[in-house]
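Translate structure to sequence.
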């Protein structure tokens, strides 16, 4: 049974568990999986970013698998909402997704003029996410897996649980977007503001379209454009 904005009302049954999936699970899965992988990976490539990206991808997959099982148990479906839409929404998602990210980033960059690599929290994060350290695992995580996991978590579970319990769409969008921004600790506070704004855009698409596929496609389009732009301006070392 669905409620406001075509939200599965089942998402409102266990608010504390929903809060766990939104606030705690993203960190716990990464910490546990990265620790295990780092401990088991004993080849000469220890310390290589390939290990980190593999662990990141594995943690995202396991998080989504566990979350989907809980959603199925709740009766909300594996994606916390409808996964069908018409071609008009699909095209809008492809267009608006990158805009939701790049417009606030462009504005923020104007205030950060003269500060090189302002997007990342520190020099270590800047080096880690440099295209020189990209792998196919990393690209799959950024372009496909992360958008799916994050949208199901924040525009699916977070927004859905709040709407099902009587929150207004605006309040649900703001709170879920704040939680979405705070998981991106690799970025600077200024960059997290742009992520928050992008989250509001994805939340808007979820609420007005009544489906999960629209914000997922928008998020994929935004991340893919970021990758292509970074690739164009800072080609990886081969």
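Result:
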């Amino acid at each position: 049974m669905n409620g406001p904005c075509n939200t599965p009302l089942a998402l409102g049954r266990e608010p504390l568990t929903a809060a766990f999936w939104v606030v705690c699970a993203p960190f716990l899965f990464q910490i546990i999986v990265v620790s295990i992988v780092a401990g088991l990976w004993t080849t000469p490539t220890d310390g290589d970013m390939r290990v980190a990206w593999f662990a990141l991808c594995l943690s995202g997959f396991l998080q989504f698998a566990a979350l989907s099982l809980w959603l199925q148990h709740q009766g909300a479906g594996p994606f916390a909402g409808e996964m069908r839409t018409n071609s008009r929404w699909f095209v809008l998602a492809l267009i608006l997704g990158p805009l939701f990210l790049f417009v606030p980033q462009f504005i923020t960059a104007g205030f950060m003029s003269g500060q090189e690599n302002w997007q990342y929290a520190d020099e270590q994060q800047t080096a880690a996410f440099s295209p020189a350290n990209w792998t196919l695992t990393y690209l799959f995580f950024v372009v496909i897996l992360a958008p799916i996991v994050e949208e199901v978590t924040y525009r699916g579970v977070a927004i859905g649980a709040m709407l099902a319990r009587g929150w207004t769409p605006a309040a649900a969008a703001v709170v879920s977007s704040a939680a979405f921004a705070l998981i991106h600790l690799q970025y600077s506070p200024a960059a997290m503001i742009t992520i928050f704004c992008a989250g509001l855009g994805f939340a808007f698409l979820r609420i007005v379209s009544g489906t999960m596929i629209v914000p997922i496609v928008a998020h994929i389009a935004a991340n893919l454009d970021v990758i292509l732009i970074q690739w164009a301006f800072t080609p990886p070392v081969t």
